[in-house]
Design goal:
297 residues, alpha/beta, Arc Repressor Mutant, subunit A, D-Maltodextrin-Binding Protein, domain 2, 3 domains, 10-stranded mixed β-sheet, 9 helices, 12 strands, 42% helix, 26% strand, DNA binding, transcription regulation
């Protein structure tokens, strides 16, 4: 099977219509439709449901999409390895994932420095919570992740980064907490809370914030902060988050840290037992040297 057909399939799955995929791929619609029909016939089952000019993946299609992405990513990395083996200059795409936090302020200038040193490497960044980043590492769709604690040391190599973030709450201007330098965790009893949905983080926060036998009153959960900010601004509950995230000015929310202080650590991680591309190896080596420099300073 030609990889070209697999690219056709992924493009249709991403865009949702034959016409949109045909425009992006510069392929005639009848040709594209015929190629997908032949692919489905070869597999012996439909990959798409045709619904009012929309192409919606079937259950089999969703499974196929995941594995095709992994195959093409692995093939691209294999091509990079071969190219780099006889080339002193690093080339290819480096796929990384990073959580929302002030670790980005530390990472961004170092990625720029790395790119200047290796201008033929394209840095593909993926913003998500720690769970999604680890899932993509496990699927082979990312090579490197920047995540927060806790870490599964059995699956990942982990290097501590010299960046901490502080937990607290984001509250509207009408909250009396805006006049305080910090919020005592005991004040959260009976307060409606919006918390991160990542299970390990939520468990850690619950153990730390919960007082006595009374459970936390959780009214909402989030993975990335954007929608949660506006839910908090609209009055759903108090947003539990870290200081390093950027609160949109139009949300009217203010960050207040917890007392006693509770910090979030950050780690550079990559999968154990999985070969890395030359650009990924080079970036890890560079970031390790930067960590040593930061600590010595």
């Amino acid at each position: 099977m030609e990889t070209r057909i697999l690219h056709y399939f992924l493009t249709i799955a991403r865009l949702g219509t034959i016409s949109a995929a045909a425009r992006e791929l510069h392929v005639a619609q009848p040709t594209l439709s015929r190629q997908i029909q032949q692919l489905e016939a070869q597999l012996g089952l439909p990959l798409f449901n045709r619904e009012r000019h929309r192409m919606v993946l079937t259950k089999a299609g969703l499974t196929y999409q995941l594995h095709v992405q992994q195959i093409l990513t692995a093939l691209e990395r294999a091509n990079q390895l071969v190219k780099n083996s006889n080339n002193a200059e690093l080339t290819g795409t480096l796929s990384t994932g990073c959580v929302e936090s002030n670790v980005t302020n530390w990472l961004a200038p170092r990625l720029v420095h790395f790119h200047h040193a290796h201008p033929h490497v394209v840095i593909d960044t993926y913003d998500a919570d720690g769970n999604a980043i680890k899932d993509r590492l496990d699927q082979g769709l990312l090579e490197i992740g920047i995540v927060s604690t806790p870490i599964n040391a059995a699956k990942y190599h982990a290097v501590r980064l010299p960046v901490n973030d502080r937990w607290g709450v984001a509250v509207p201007a009408t909250s009396p907490w805006t006049k305080q330098a910090s919020v005592d965790v005991a004040a959260l009893v009976n307060q409606p809370l919006i918390v991160p949905h990542r299970s390990l983080v939520k468990t850690e926060l619950t153990d730390w914030l919960q007082t006595g036998d009374q459970p936390l009153r959780i009214v909402g959960e989030y993975n990335l902060l954007t929608n949660a900010v506006y839910l908090a601004a609209a009055g759903l509950g108090t947003l539990v988050c870290i200081a390093g995230v950027t609160l949109p000015p139009d949300s009217g929310l203010t960050f207040i840290p917890f007392f006693p202080q509770h910090q979030l650590k950050h780690f550079l991680i990559w999968r154990k037992g999985v070969p890395l591309s030359a650009p990924a190896q080079a970036l890890i080596t560079f970031l390790k040297s930067e960590i040593t420099t930061s600590v010595s300073e």
